[in-house]
Design goal:
Distance between the termini: 24 Å
Largest sheet: 3 strands, antiparallel
Number of strands: 6
Mean pLDDT: 75
Number of helices: 3
Order of helices and strands: HEEHEHEEE
Strand content: 15-25%
Low-confidence stretches: 56-66
Helix content: 10-25%
Structural class: alpha+beta
Shape: globular
Radius of gyration: 16 Å
Length: about 120
Amino acid sequence: MEQSPIAACNKIHPGDELKKINGVPVTGKSVDEVCDMLSRLSHDCTLTVSAFGAYPDEREAYIAPKSRYFRAFFNYDPKTDAVNPCKDASFPFELGDILEVLNTEDECWWQAKKYGNAHVA
């Protein structure tokens, strides 16, 4: 991602929400549908993005739930992650694993555990 055009422009940041691609709303679409829309583009595009924290209560709503479940869409090995600040406190997961997010107070590093596993990082 560091070499991508989006990273180079430094205009979109973690937590921002994609609203439109070339004026077409993406709200309610799945990640696969949005990726499909982007992959079909053969030219420059215009992205409409809502900045994270644009509204005073947005951050509170973002971190309020006590627990969330996510399915991993990729394999992750903390030992090979160059930006991981604490590899010893992290655990690997694989495509398809269910992760229970326990704490999202740090917007860059969440605390989670594999669902059905006592191992927490």
